[in-house]
Write a structure and sequence with these properties.
Helix 12 runs parallel beside helix 14. The relative contact order is 0.09. About 55% of the residues lie in helices and about 5% in strands. It has three domains: about 120 residues, Methane Monooxygenase Hydroxylase, Chain G, domain 1, CATH 1.20.58.80; about 190 residues, P-loop containing nucleotide triphosphate hydrolases (Rossmann fold, 3-Layer(aba) Sandwich), CATH 3.40.50.300; about 90 residues, Helicase, Ruva Protein, domain 3, CATH 1.10.8.60. It has 21 helices and six strands. Bound molecules: adenosine-5'-diphosphate.
C-alpha cells in the first residue's frame, strides 16, 4: 500500500511543481489524476486512521486544485479580453463564440488534457489561441466519456457540429457520412507535424495479420481472445467483476511473435492499430515524447475501437528512481500512467466502439516499473515454439519456396529446439538462399544478371536446412529462460 501512495503522491508533486511554473493546464491534469487515484486508494483502505488521514489530505488538495483552476480561469478571461481588444477580423462571428467560452491560458508547449472527442470544442484557429476548457461537469468525465449517442456515424457528425466550426467544416456537419468515408483525426489545436508523423508511422488501419499467420501460441491466442477480442465483441458481458483488463502485457524472449500477436489482435477485432516502440518514443521523438503519448491516446480514442501496442515497454518504463531514469523519461512515464487510467475508465464505457485496449510487450519484464506492471493487469508468457509450432513456422515461412523431395519439415523442426520464431525465420531465409548461392558461385555480376528467372528458384534441400541451422545461432539462452520462468511465477497472471 505504501508504494501505492508514493506513486499517487508523485502526481501531487508534479501538480504543485507545474503550478509553480505557471503551467496550470498541466497542473490541473496532475491534480485530477491525484484526486482520482486518491479516491481509489481510499476505497480499498481498511485502516480507519489511515483512511482519515488520506481523507484530510484529499480535501486539502481538493481546495488547492480549485484555487489553481480559479487562477487558470482568471487567466483565460484575461486572454479572451486581450484577444477581444486585438479584434482579429478573420475570425468573424466565430470569434464571439470563443470569447464567451471558458478558456484556459495555454503554454504553447503544453497540450491541454485530452477530452473525449464528443466534448472537445474545435477552435478553427491554429497557433497559440487557447482552446475552450471543458465545462465543470465535463472535466471529471474527461476519460470516462459516456457517449450521448453510440453510433459511430454520429460520432463523426458530432465532431462536425462542434461550436466554432465554420465554413466547410460547418457544411461537413450537415453532410451525412457515407459508407466508406474514412474518419480523419483533426489536427487542429495540436502540433500538425506530430499528428502527421503519428498518422504516417504509428497508425495502421489494418495490419493484416491473421491468427492463421501466427504459428503455435495457441494458449496466448486464447488468452488474448478472451482478454482483448471478446470485450470488443460482446462488451455487455464484460461488466462489473468481469470488466476488461486495463492492459495486457506480453512477456517473453525476443522474436517469439509478440508483435505479430498484437497485430493479430488488431486484425481479428478490426481495430485501429497504434504500433509504438518505446525506443522510438525516446529517441525519434526526443523531447516530444510526453506530447506524443497524450496525442497517441487521444487519437486512439478518436479512432476507437483501437489497440495501442507499446513494444519494448521496459525501455521507457524502467524502475522509477533508478539511476538511468531521466527527468524526461519520468514525465513520459507519468503521462502514460495517467492515460492508462483514462483507458481503464473507457473500458467501463458500454459502447464497444469507444474501447481502447493497451497491449504491451517486453523482453525484460524484470526491468519494468512497478506502477506500470500493476496497470498491465494481465501478464502472459509468450514462449519459444514447441516442436509442432516449429514445424508450423517452417511451413508458414516456406509457403513460396520450392522444396526438394528429400525435405522433411518435421525432422527439421526437431533439430531446432530452443530456436525462437525469428531464429527459425532466419534459418528459412538462409536455407532458401543456399541453392542460389551455389548457382552463382564464381560468376561475374554480368553472368549473374544473365541467369534465367526459372533458375532463381532452385529447390531447397534438406542439406540446405542443416547448413543454415549451423549458421544461425539460438538467440535465447537457458539462463534467460530460467529468468522468465521465475518472473512469471512471481508476477504472471496465467
Ligand atoms: P517479438 O515481438 O516477440 O520480438 P516478433 O513478433 O517481432 O517477435 O517476431 C519476429 C519475426 O519472427 C516475425 O516477423 C516472424 O517472421 C517471426 N515469428 C516469430 N514468432 C512467430 C510465430 N509464432 N508465427 C509466425 N512467425 C513468427
Amino acid at each position: 500500500m505504501g508504494a501505492d501512495f508514493e506513486e499517487v503522491y508523485e502526481n501531487l508533486k508534479q501538480a504543485r511543481e507545474q503550478a509553480l511554473f505557471g503551467k496550470y493546464d498541466t497542473s490541473v491534469v496532475y491534480y485530477q489524476g491525484f484526486l482520482q487515484q486518491m479516491q481509489k486508494l481510499m476505497n480499498v483502505i481498511r485502516d480507519p486512521e489511515k483512511k482519515n488521514e488520506y481523507q484530510k489530505l484529499r480535501s486539502k488538495v481538493s481546495s488547492e486544485y480549485e484555487q489553481v483552476k480559479d487562477i487558470q480561469k482568471t487567466l483565460s478571461c484575461l486572454t479572451s479580453e486581450s484577444r477581444f481588444s486585438r479584434q482579429q477580423p478573420d475570425y468573424g462571428s466565430q470569434f464571439d463564440d470563443y470569447s464567451r467560452q471558458e478558456e484556459p491560458t495555454r503554454d504553447p508547449d503544453v497540450w491541454p488534457p485530452p477530452t473525449p472527442v464528443e466534448n472537445r470544442p474545435s477552435p478553427n484557429i491554429r497557433g497559440n489561441v487557447p482552446r475552450a476548457a471543458p465545462k465543470k461537469s465535463e472535466s471529471s468525465s474527461r476519460y470516462r466519456s459516456k457517449p450521448s449517442n453510440n453510433s459511430p456515424a454520429n460520432y463523426g457528425q458530432q465532431r462536425g457540429s462542434r461550436p466554432g466550426d465554420r465554413g466547410s467544416r460547418g457544411q461537413q456537419a450537415k453532410k451525412k457520412p457515407e459508407e466508406g468515408d474514412e474518419k480523419k483525426f483533426d489536427p487542429q489545436g495540436h502540433d500538425k507535424d506530430l499528428v502527421e508523423n503519428l498518422e504516417r508511422d504509428i497508425v495502421q488501419k489494418n495490419p493484416n495479420v491473421h491468427w492463421s499467420d501466427i504459428a503455435d501460441l495457441v494458449e496466448a491466442k486464447k488468452l488474448l481472445q478472451e482478454a482483448v477480442v471478446l470485450p470488443l465483441i460482446i462488451p455487455d458481458f464484460f461488466k462489473g467483476i468481469r470488466r476488461p483488463w486495463k492492459g495486457v502485457l506480453m512477456v517473453g524472449p525476443p522474436g517469439t511473435g509478440k508483435t505479430l500477436l498484437a497485430k493479430g489482435v488488431a486484425t481479428e477485432c478490426g481495430t485501429t492499430f497504434f504500433n509504438i516502440s518505446s525506443a522510438a518514443l525516446t529517441s525519434k521523438w526526443h523531447g516530444e515524447s510526453e506530447k506524443l503519448v497524450r496525442l497517441l491516446f487521444e487519437m486512439a480514442r478518436f479512432y476507437a475501437p483501437s489497440t495501442i501496442f507499446i513494444d519494448e515497454i521496459d525501455s521507457i518504463c524502467s524502475k522509477r528512481g533508478s539511476s538511468s531514469e531521466h527527468e524526461a523519461s519520468r514525465r513520459v512515464k507519468s503521462e502514460l500512467l495517467i492515460q492508462m487510467d483514462g483507458v481503464a475508465g473507457a473500458c467501463e464505457v458500454e459502447d464497444s466502439t469507444k474501447i481502447v485496449m493497451v497491449l504491451a510487450a517486453t523482453n525484460f519484464p524484470w526491468d519494468l516499473d512497478e506502477a506500470l506492471r500493476r496497470r498491465l493487469e494481465k501478464r502472459i508468457y509468450i514462449p519459444l515454439p514447441t516442436e509442432k509450432g516449429r514445424e508450423e513456422l517452417l511451413k508458414i515461412n516456406l509457403k513460396e519456396v520450392p522444396l526438394a523431395p528429400d525435405v522433411d519439415l518435421a525432422a527439421v523442426a526437431a533439430t531446432l529446439d530452443g530456436y525462437s520464431g525469428a531464429d527459425i525465420t532466419n534459418v528459412c531465409r538462409d536455407a532458401a538462399m543456399m541453392s542460389f548461392r551455389r548457382r552463382i558461385r564464381g560468376l561475374s555480376p554480368e553472368e549473374i544478371r544473365n541467369i534465367p528467372k526459372e533458375e532463381w528458384s532452385l529447390p531447397t534441400s534438406m542439406e540446405d536446412f542443416l547448413e543454415a541451422k549451423e549458421k544461425v545461432n539460438k538467440s535465447v539462452s537457458a539462463d534467460d529462460l530460467k529468468k522468465y520462468k521465475e518472473w512469471m511465477s512471481e508476477f504472471g497472471s496465467v
